Structures are given as C-alpha cells and as structure tokens.
Amino acid sequence: MNSSIAQRRDGFDQWIHQVNRICGAFSAQTLGDEFSGHIREYQSGALKLSFVDACQARLYRTPKEVAASEGGKYFAVFQLAGSACMAQGDNRVSLCAGDITLIDASQPSDFTYHENSRQLSLILPHRLIEQSLRYTPVKCGHLIGAKSPIATLSHHLILDAARQTNLSQQESEATLDAVISLLRPAISQSEGVDDVHERIFRKTLGYIDEHIRSEDLCPELLAREVGVSMRGLYRMFARKGLVVARYIKNRRLDLCAESLRQSRTEQKLSALGYSWGFSDSSYFSTAFKSRFGISPGEYRKQYA
C-alpha cells in the first residue's frame, strides 16, 4: 500500500514538474487516490501547444505563481475528452468534449479535473490578440460551446495543425492568425461599444489606420481630428494600458513587418520604412529590431 502511494506521489511530482516546464509556474494538488497525469508538448515555428491529460487533480495560479511565470500570453483551452472546470476572476466554466475557453496567463486561474480529462492548450501571445481585437476587452473564463461553428472549426484547425511535423514560420503564424480570427467573435467583450469613451477610442484607431502612412500623424493632430483634448487623448489610451505615440509607432512597425512577410520584391528597406511614415531609416531599423528582435533585413530573409 505504501509502495502504491509512493508511486502515485512520484507520478504526480513528475507531472507537475513537466507542467511547470512547458506551461509556466503552477501549483497543484491531487483530489483523490486515483490521480493520473501526462503532458506532451508540440512546437512548430510560432505554434506552441501542449496535450494535457489529468484525472483527480487541481492546477492553479495565485499571484505568486503569476509573478514567477512568463506573462504576455493567453491559453486557448480546447477540451478534447472528459470534462474539467476552469475559473478565472468571477467566471467559472465547465468544459465537456468539444468546448473551448480562453484563460489569461497573466492573471490567477484555477483548473480542476475530477475525471479523465484531455485538453489541448494553445499559447496565444497577448500582442496577437490585442492586434486582432484592436484592444477591445477580452472575455476570459467564458464557455465557447462545442455545438457552435466557432468551436467546431477551431478544433478541426488546431488538431490538423498539430499533426503537421514541418510547418514553416510563415505557415505557423498564419495558423495562429486563423485560430484567433475564428475565436474573435466569442472572446471579444463588445458590451462597452455603446460607451462614449469606447466609441471615441474606436474612432481614433480608425483615424490612425487611415493616416498611418503620413509623417504628420502625431498625438496633437490626432486629438484635434477626433475632437478631444490632449489630456483626454492620453487618458483614453492609458485606460487601455497604451501610450499614444508608442501605439502609432508599433502599428507602423507591425504593418511594415506584414509587408515584409507578403512582399515578393526586393524593395529598399529605407523606402519601406518611409512608405509607412518613418522619415529616418536608422530610427526605423532600430525600432524594428527592438520590437521584433531582428533587423528588417533579417526579418525579410526569414520569410523569403
């Protein structure tokens, strides 16, 4: 009997060690004598996911584990078999096979597995979610039901992608974009769209996109065109955790990167930067490397 208990304990310790290595810092506890657990990692290019099997176990993150883990990402949790309960903030959802939910890795969360459960956990970087949702509040800990077309299509897409062994960087990034596009209607918190501040913010983002190529685009011009004071403009962006000038710069850089990924011609990099509103080629190169970790030239070669 003692040997059996020791084996289960060893199995549990090994499981939580692998979970922490693959998914980040979690605390855990067993919920009965029939614990079992296994985790398998899959990575191809930008696609990073894991298959998590668990029975009679609880995984949770307190502020302590959040602080010890890498932030800047969400977990899109696809329930493949069995059932599980996910909780974040005031939201709690019970998942059955085919269901999906979204969990913010930078916030405390709680996962409970009472019976044989198998999940696919896909990492979605904050930056991709924010770009796709254009800084609309994100719904976490909500059920995306198995019978919805969104859940069905998303399950098929990510499972098919996980069967591939040689996705290129471009293909893996396109897969992530496709998954986020599919989930967007279900994870976008649109209740605030009738709020006057939210309407002005949406109008401001639209103006930025329309004039993003102009060198004259700046906070002063933006405030004047959308009809708010400079202080009001800064406060509006600050509520989203943003700085106006930095948002404009990063938006330009993201569009430059998209152009480099899609272009089939060898356009001069200085001309590319200039076409998206950067008047100084040296500044453009430095800013690009700061955002993406490599120079524009290296980035283009990566996608050639």
Automatic annotation (TrEMBL):
The gene is feaR. It comes from Pseudomonas helleri. Regulatory protein of the TOL plasmid xyl operons. XylS activates the xylXYZLTEGFJQKIH operon required for the degradation of toluene, m-xylene and p-xylene. SMART domains: HTH_ARAC. Residues 202-302 form the HTH araC/xylS-type domain. Pfam families: AraC_binding_2, HTH_18. This is Transcriptional regulator FeaR. InterPro entries: AraC-bd_2, AraC_XylS_family_regulators, Homeodomain-like_sf, HTH_AraC, Tscrpt_reg_AraC-type_HTH. GO terms for molecular function: DNA-binding transcription factor activity; sequence-specific DNA binding. It comes from the Bacteria. Keywords: DNA-binding, Transcription, Transcription regulation. NCBIfam families: PRK09685.1.
